[in-house]
Design brief:
The chain has about 80 residues and is mainly α. The chain has one domain (about 15-80). The protein has helices at about 1-10, 20-25, 35-45, 50-55, 70-80, and strands spanning about 20, 65. It has a two-stranded antiparallel ribbon. α2 (about 20-25) packs across α3 (about 35-45). The two termini are about 25 Å apart.
Length: about 80
């Protein structure tokens, strides 16, 4: 039983700092990075309350990285990539 718990942890999405393009490509693969970022930004803008919660964590619209807390918020809304 303990072994299956460990393997499920290994396959879960790691919550850590991600570059915007890096995280967008996790969710939207097989397109250019800029296309993935544009689409991901649209998801963030249209998800009810998500953008404000991200701004409350200190996110700046011009930042290039997401903090682990911001990634956790997005994974809670969008699920794991």
């Amino acid at each position: 039983m303990m072994k299956s718990d460990v393997s499920s942890l290994e396959t879960s999405f790691p919550i850590r700092s991600y570059g915007k393009g890096e995280l967008a490509m996790c969710y939207i693969p097989n397109v250019t990075q800029q296309t993935a970022v544009n689409q991901f930004n649209e998801w963030v803008h249209t998800a009810p309350g998500l953008e404000q919660r991200l701004l409350d964590t200190g996110m700046n619209r011009t930042c290039r990285r997401y903090t682990p807390a911001q990634v956790r918020l997005m994974v809670n809304v969008f699920g794991e990539p």
